[in-house]
Amino acid sequence: MAEPRTVVVTGASRGLGLVSAAHLYRRGWRVIAAMRSVDAGLSRLRELTGASPGDNRLVGVALDLTEAASVERAAKEILEVAGAPDALVHNAGISAAGMVEETPIALWERMFATNLFGPVALTKALLPAMRAAGRGRVVLVSSEAGVRGMPATAPYSAVKGAVERWGESMAGEVAPFGIGVTVLVAGTYETDIITDAGTTDSRDLDGPYARLHRTIDRRGRLLVGRAARPPERFVGGLAAALDDTGAYIRRPVGPDARMLLLLNRIAPTRLMHQMIRLLLGIPRRGSLWPAPEGSQPNI
Ligand SMILES: NC(=O)c1ccc[n+]([C@@H]2O[C@H](COP(=O)([O-])OP(=O)(O)OC[C@H]3O[C@@H](n4cnc5c(N)ncnc54)[C@H](OP(=O)(O)O)[C@@H]3O)[C@@H](O)[C@H]2O)c1
Predict the structure, then answer these.
(1) How far is the CA of 1 from the centre of ligand 1 (A)?
(2) According to a count of CB atoms within 10 Å of the terminal CB, is the N or C end of the chain lower?
(3) Which SUPFAM superfamilies does its entry note (predicted)?
(4) pLDDT digits (tens, 9 = 90+) for 263-294
(5) pTM, entire model
């Protein structure tokens, strides 16, 4: 019997990573579930899949993307357990709410450490083995916020945009060695990251941006509520990405992501800006000037 293909999924403890890891296991993949809380994550995965504790098609690896030593240890363990993975899915991520003025630099740093620097370090550590094997696919989970810079979540938009450019650059480098890159632009799914509890909130609801927060919050919740689909609807898009053969593929997952990519391609930048402004109920340029007195940035 042929050896199962191996996929590493980061952030497999919950949300999209959890259901994706379970789905890929059911489809016959050998899944290396990389996560911060291995025991809790593995028990959820075993519950979802029926895999037994001795099943070597489901392996947990400890990974905290914000810690260089943890990334290094995880890469070593992955290589020891499975050799060069056939696929590496960078799914783990965090989000943020708040205006640029309100968001502490420490949160920008954590955002980039989690969503970009950690994934880059893990990829660097695994690429030599993947190159030597002459095959493999790196999948980067992006977001609609990475396609357009969305107000009130600049660190998240910035890091997802950076993730996309990283993937695009790397694709040109690794394709000659047989390795492909897919960027998945995920639509909206019902996971913790779209809830208040699952997001780091730096908003100052009484500060100079209070008026914007009120409308963005109201409209945003309405839009997210309408668009959000069960996380199980995401897994087909990821499974398809693992079968991609092109050197660089960027694909939407979900109708809202598909629509945004289309609009972003055909509509001029100014029009896209106005559309997002109207959608989120943001007042016209200059209408909140002069700024209320005593408004201080939150550093
Ligand atoms: N849900 C959506 O609507 C949506 C839309 C667009 C893009 N996405 C993207 O999809 C991916 C998965 O998000 P989700 O919706 O599943 O969110 P989620 O339910 O909040 O899950 C986030 C995952 O990332 C892990 N994680 C966070 N910080 C980490 C760190 N320092 N080291 C290792 N793992 C860490 C979490 O692990 P712990 O359990 O240890 O915290 C968790 O497994 C993210 O990249 C997100 O940006 C989601």
Answers:
(1) 35
(2) N
(3) NAD(P)-binding Rossmann-fold domains
(4) 999 999 999 999 999 999 999 999 988 876 66
(5) 0.96
